[in-house]
Amino acid sequence: MNTPKRLGILTSGGDCPGLNAVIRAVVSHATLTYNWEVFGIPYATQGLRERQIIPLRMHSFDLRGIDPLVSMGGTILGTVNGGNTLAQAEDIIAGYRALNLDALIAIGGDGSLRILSELAMRGNWQFIGIPKTIDNDVAVTERSVGFDTAVNTITDALNRLTFTAASHDRVMVVEVMGRDAGHLALHAGIAGGADVILLPEIPYSVQEICEHLAELRDRWQRRFAIVVVAEGIHPPAESPCREKPACGMGQFIASQIGECSPYPVDVRVSVLGHIQRGGIPTALDRLIAAAFGKTAVDLVAAGKSNQIVTWQCGEVVAVPIEQVCEQSPHGVEPDSPLVQTARALGIYVGKK
């Protein structure tokens, strides 16, 4: 059908559920449809620099006919998050050539894809990117691999914390990931029945938070509350300290609520941390992973390069990588329909 190719695939940046499902889709389609060889590059660009390669074949990971990749979290190829990759560009490009690769598919966030695109242009690689991030902050695409699973993980945690908060009349402050974008906090906060959601994109007031919690108590006899805090929020304008505290923003908000509340309040903090990255991918993440992997292989077959596959209106659409990188990271629009929905449900989401 096509000239046989040696196709490389790697995962870069932080791990998330669904990466192995992408790898599975790429290997399946490339080998079954195009009869290509597929090679995994361990630990992202580190593997290219060190000339490491792992042959990937259909059913090579099967256990008695069971394919674990569709449901396995993390990444079988390993990943690296951080470091000055471009400073090692010559070694990485030389490694790509030494491995005799014809094309590279990379699964990464906006930072990883931006760097890999630069390497591809310098090295004249055929390159296709697949977006993954639990923060969902890659521009142009409505969904990135891993986001839906992380939202479900946080929602489950909020469900559990709600029962203990109600039992003890406590305010539970739950800090979730989201350094520059509040998509995780917003989606999970609405789904998990939060009373307050604080996002990096929307200013807020501690006084307004306390007034909102007091209204819950006075008007609705609610003696507990759930406050979801994205880790990337900044101290409010009225705070004398403009730097983020070392203890984390969840702990900061908890202490501020304790000081300003008109009622004695028992405030507890839960920092979900890296538990949000783990777990078995949801059905939606598996479907998106399969669609992204299949389309990425087809783009390579069509001779396309420097493209990122995106999810738009239920379909996979290829977009020039420059367009995506120029607009990333993409945060929550302060007046988006989902923010309006949260406010319509009586959730405090910062100042209007």
What can you tell me about this protein's structure?
The strands form two sheets. Strands 3-2-1-4-5-10-11 form a seven-stranded mixed sheet, sandwiched between helices. A four-stranded parallel sheet has the order 7-8-6-9, with helices on both faces. Helix content is about 40%, strand content about 15%. The chain has helices at about 20-30, 45-50, 90-100, 110-125, 145-170, 185-190, 205-220, 250-260, 285-300, 320-325, 335-345, and strands at about 5-10, 35-40, 55, 105-110, 125-130, 170-175, 195-200, 225-230, 265-270, 305-310, 315-320.
- The secondary-structure class comes to alpha/beta
Distance between the termini: 57 Å
Characterize the overall form: elongated
Strand content: 15-25%
User: Based on the structure, what is the oligomeric state of the protein chains?
Assistant: single chain
Order of helices and strands: EHEHEHEHEHEHEHEHEHEEHH
Spans of at least 5 consecutive residues with low confidence: none
Give, in spatial order, the strands making up the sheet with the most strands: 3-2-1-4-5-10-11
Give a count of the beta strands, DSSP E runs of length 2 or more: 11
Indicate the percent of residues in helices.
25-40%
Largest sheet: 7 strands, mixed
- Summed up, the helix count is 11
Radius of gyration (CA) equals 22 Å
Please tell me the overall pLDDT.
93
